Amino acid sequence: MAMSNYSVEIEDKFDKLMNKKENSQVVIKRLGAEVISYRVWDKENKRTLPLLWNDNNDFPPPEGGWKNHATVLFPHVGGLKNNESWLGDIKITSQGNHGFARHSTFEAVDHDNDNCAYIHYRLKANDETRRYYPFNFRLDIVYSLKGNELSAEFEVTNMEEGRDIFFSLGWHPGFSTAFPDFGGKKEDWQIIFKKGKYRRHLNNENCRLTGETEDLDIAGPFGCSEEELERTIMLEIEKRELRNCEFYNPKIKRGVKINFEDFPFLAIWSEVGRKFICLEPCQGLDDHEMQESFDQKVGIVRLDALTSKKWQAVIKPIFP
To answer: What domains can you pick out in the chain, each with its CATH number?
Structure first.
C-alpha cells in the first residue's frame, strides 16, 4: 500500500494538517476551532508563505488591534445591540462580537489522512453556551487540506425535539498583505469579483445596519478605502455563481481565491494601518440600529427540530 502524502497531528490544544508532497500546513487551535496558520509552498522562491494575518509560528500577536486569524462566528454574526437580543420572551446575550463559538473549546471527534488531511471538530450545547443562547444545538466543523487548498465545512444541527432554533454563522479569515521578503503595500492588493450585481448593506459607525442598501454593478477589482474597510463593507450576493472572489496582488503575482457558494453574504473588514484584510463568508449580518427580534435579523437561519444544515467555503492559493 502506498504511503499517503498527508498527515494529521492531534495534540491537546493545537492540531496540524500537513501535505508533505506540497509542503503545505494548517494549524488549528481547539479554542474556537480556529485556523491560526495556513502555509503553502512557493515553488518559485523555494519557501513557505503564511497566508493568514498574525501567523502563529512567526509573528507574536500585535500589542493592539485584531489578534485573531480565522474566527468562527456563531450563533450570531457581528454584534448584538447592547449585547442582547430577544426572541419572544427568550433572551439571547453575547460576550461581544460574533457569539460564543470563538471562546469555546471544541472536541476533535475524527481525523484521517487518506486522500486528504482532515479533522472534524464538534461543539455541543452545554451549561456555558446556554447562559448566552438557551437552545440545544450541535456545531460540527471539518477542516481539510487537499493539495494546497483549505476547505472549511460547517454543519449546524437543531437538537431540540419540539422547537425551531434561529442562528447566524460565518467564517472570518484575515489574509496577510505582507508576505515575507516581497515588500509591497496594502493598497497593492485587489479584491476581484466576477461581473454581476451585488447589494451593499449600509451601516453606521457602530457597525449596525441602517436599513439602507445600495445596488452595485461590479466587474473586476472592487475599490474601497481604509476607512470603509474599518467600518466593514457588507455585500449580499444573491446568485450562487457570483459567490467567489480573488484576493490578489498583481505586483507580486500572488493571492488566494475564495469560493463560498453556500454563504449569501460577504463582509470585508480591516483596521487602518494593519497589514491584513478579512474576507468573511457569512450567513447573516449585524443588528439594525433600530433592533429587530432575533428571528428577524438579516440572513438569520430558522432550523426545524432535529434537522441540520451545511455550508462550505474553500480557499485556493494563486501562485505562479
So the answer is: 17-318 (2.70.98.10)
